[in-house]
From TrEMBL, chain A:
Keywords: Ubl conjugation pathway
SMART domains reported for this sequence: Skp1 (SM00512)
Pathway note: Protein modification; protein ubiquitination
General function of this protein: Involved in ubiquitination and subsequent proteasomal degradation of target proteins. Together with CUL1, RBX1 and a F-box protein, it forms a SCF E3 ubiquitin ligase complex. The functional specificity of this complex depends on the type of F-box protein. In the SCF complex, it serves as an adapter that links the F-box protein to CUL1.
Protein name as it appears in the record: SKP1-like protein
Phylogenetic placement of the source organism: Eukaryota, Viridiplantae, Streptophyta, Embryophyta, Tracheophyta
Subunit structure: Part of a SCF (SKP1-cullin-F-box) protein ligase complex.
InterPro entries (UniProt xref): SKP1, SKP1-like, SKP1-like_dim_sf, SKP1/BTB/POZ_sf, Skp1_comp_dimer, Skp1_comp_POZ
Biological process annotations from GO: jasmonic acid mediated signaling pathway; protein ubiquitination; ubiquitin-dependent protein catabolic process
Family: Belongs to the SKP1 family.
TrEMBL record, chain B:
Species this protein is from: Protea cynaroides
Protein name: F-box domain-containing protein
SUPFAM superfamilies, alphabetized: F-box domain (SSF81383), Galactose oxidase, central domain (SSF50965)
Domain spans labelled F-box: 55-95
Pfam families assigned to the protein according to its UniProt record, in alphabetical order: Beta-prop_KIB1-4, F-box
InterPro entries: F-box-like_dom_sf (IPR036047), F-box_BR-signaling (IPR050942), F-box_dom (IPR001810), Gal_Oxase/kelch_b-propeller (IPR011043), KIB1-4_b-propeller (IPR005174)
Length: 184, 418
């Protein structure tokens, strides 16, 4: 299948090329393409040239399997299980390799600091790329989980902007349990 | 510091030089440039970082959905905008909320200490001018407090120790206060505006008040049942109040019709003691508990020591509809249970118990009763604190070395909510 090229223009007027199949990973882009109002270049005023290549990288990886190939693989496995067990095992193996490879890719892909995470999350939200939004939101949640408010602030480089009174009356002051806790 | 300066040659050099040149004034040309450029990068940094608090509502919701209840508290404690973004998270997964044990108050700062058992964490919440000795119970995440000493006044209010919200209630009579047993909220005022408070007293039986009421309305004429209601237990379930009498019968009080109807029950767990290692003379406390829509009677047996009671075992009963017409017991009967449920745990207290799912709360041990230092109502003596494994009856202390007898007030389970 020969793929049409789509051109995306970042907020700072830089143009990037992407295959149509890859672009379809984004609901927003898919709607524009299917709507037929494709006018050469799609302007993305909310995505900068720093982050757009990162988005395109994700789409390239996931544009092809946008539901279809995964479904065929899974459905095929279940249906053919009784009829073709040998073939099935092979298929299972291949599927496992594919999933492992994808996990490894995601791990490497998601290795960036919180500023990129922020921009990427907003881009995924704006472009309606569900998989990417899930990935970024999960990363943000993992930077919050099991941490005290102080540690969370450090992770996201947020300054506490509570007033001194609010700080004093802080909703929650936490101490991790230690044996030195004294009861009098 | 040395390494940093070496790595960042131009800035580091300049700073080092100016320091050497003019260590006192700090106003030389070089040093001021350094300062200016530093503040600019600081400003830039902040401009970038501040945006985290401007996340679209959808992504904030998605993040919150991936956090558990305690983590949501932490989220809301990070900055003003995150706090404002998460005001109503308590409504989302109420079934996942595990009671915290409010067990201590710092005499100097007034900070309340909560023990979060599954996470082995102590949470401190500072609430000035609150005296836990004036706390008369906990319900739906709110504490029932009196405003001052008994002789002073009998103004009472609800206090949410997490959000620190307060709701004034009509004053209670001195008699009611002195014979106060338990308080219930139909639902948390933070979630539902149509709440109702039920107070259980020896002097007046059941008392009710709704938002805006100026006085308490008195429930069923207690005198009629005084012999049996005095030290029983009450719970709220499905808009009705269930009352466990001293004879272990269950009564249903319909708030709308003011009808009090005997549902069934009866019989004393003391009759059931055969091979449980519990003697007939041992004191016990009966609790009425709801778990997964079913009513349980939990009898906690105690051994008497000089200053306190030691918990020696539990007997469990479930209220069953009686299909046997020949038995002359009306409607429902208590049926002995050997298990509380493989996927349930019970946080037990005379101030309010709560059953939780251990599947949804992996840190909680299943088929266990977490019991605390309730006061025995007739003798006023405190009990101990611990965990009972219902399956084999084994009793062990909490995983944190709390000295239960050093507590200055009876602990309460508080299900954190805002």
């Amino acid at each position: 299948m020969s793929s049409t090229k789509i051109f995306l223009k970042s907020s700072d007027d830089k143009t990037f090329e992407i295959d149509e199949t890859a672009a379809r990973a984004s609901e927003t882009l898919k709607n524009i393409i299917d709507g037929g109002c494709l006018d050469g270049v799609i302007p993305l005023p909310n995505v900068s040239s720093n982050i757009l290549p990162k988005v395109i990288e994700y789409c390239k990886k996931h544009g092809g399997d946008n539901g279809s190939s995964k479904k065929i693989a899974n459905g095929g496995v279940d249906k053919d299980k009784e009829i073709l067990p040998d073939y099935d095992e092979e298929e299972d193996k291949r599927e496992k390799v594919r999933v492992d490879e994808l996990k490894k890719w995601e791990e490497e892909y998601m290795d960036f600091d919180q500023q990129v995470l922020y921009d990427l999350m907003l881009a995924a939200n704006y472009l309606h790329i569900k998989g990417l939004l899930d990935l970024t939101v999960e990363k943000a949640a993992s930077m919050i989980r099991g941490r005290t408010p102080d540690q969370i602030r450090e992770n996201f480089n947020i300054n506490s902007d509570f007033t001194p009174e609010e700080e004093e009356e802080m909703i929650l002051i936490e101490d991790e349990w230690d044996d030195e806790w004294a009861f009098d | 510091m040395e390494k940093k300066a070496a790595a960042c040659i131009p800035g580091g050099e300049t700073e080092a030089i100016t320091r050497r040149m003019n260590p006192f004034t700090g106003t030389s040309y070089f040093s001021s440039t350094v300062v200016v450029s530093d503040t600019e990068t600081e400003k830039e940094k902040r401009a970038v970082y501040r945006r985290w608090s401007e996340l679209p509502a959808l992504t904030i919701d998605m993040i919150l959905d991936r956090l558990d209840f305690v983590e949501k508290f932490r989220f809301a404690s990070v900055c003003v905008t995150w706090r404002d973004a998460a005001p109503d998270f308590a409504k989302r997964r109420p079934q996942r909320i595990i009671p915290w044990l409010l067990f201590s108050q710092d005499t100097q700062t007034g900070a309340l200490s909560f023990l979060n058992l599954p996470e082995t964490m102590i949470h401190h919440v500072r609430i000035p001018q609150i005296n836990m000795n004036l706390c008369y119970g906990s319900t739906q995440g709110w504490l029932f407090m009196f405003a001052g000493d008994a002789c002073e006044n009998n103004h009472c209010f609800l206090l949410n120790p997490i959000s620190k919200a307060q709701i004034q209630l009509p004053p209670l009579s001195l008699e009611s206060r002195q014979s106060f047993l338990k308080v219930l909220l139909s639902s948390s005022p933070a979630i539902n505006e149509d709440w109702m408070v039920v107070a259980h007293t020896v002097s007046h039986g059941l008392l009710f008040c709704k938002p805006g009421d100026r006085s308490w309305s008195i429930g069923p004429p207690n005198s009629k049942y005084a012999f049996s209601f005095d030290y029983g237990d009450i719970i709220f379930s499905g808009g009705q109040v269930y009352v466990l009498s001293m004879l272990n019968t269950v009564w249903v009080f319909d708030i709308k019709t003011q009808n009090l109807v005997l549902m069934g029950g009866g019989a004393s767990p003391a009759y059931d003691l055969h091979n449980d290692g519990i003697d007939h003379g041992d004191p016990y406390i009966c609790y009425l508990v709801e778990s997964n829509g079913e009513l349980f009677l939990v009898a906690r047996f105690l051994k008497n020591t000089a200053y306190h009671y030691t918990t020696i075992g539990f007997l469990l009963y479930k209220l069953h509809k009686n299909d046997n017409i020949e038995l002359r017991v009306r409607g429902y009967v208590w049926v002995r249970q050997s298990s509380f449920g493989a996927d349930r745990a019970l946080f037990l207290s005379i101030n309010g118990s709560k059953s939780v799912s251990t599947i949804e709360n992996p840190g909680v041990q299943s088929n266990c009763i977490y019991f605390i230092n309730d006061l025995h109502r007739q003798t006023g003596k405190p009990c101990d604190i611990g965990i009972c494994h219902v399956e084999d009856g084994k009793i062990e202390p909490f995983n944190i070395p709390l000295d239960a007898y050093a507590f200055k007030f009876p602990s309460v389970w508080v299900t954190p909510s805002v």
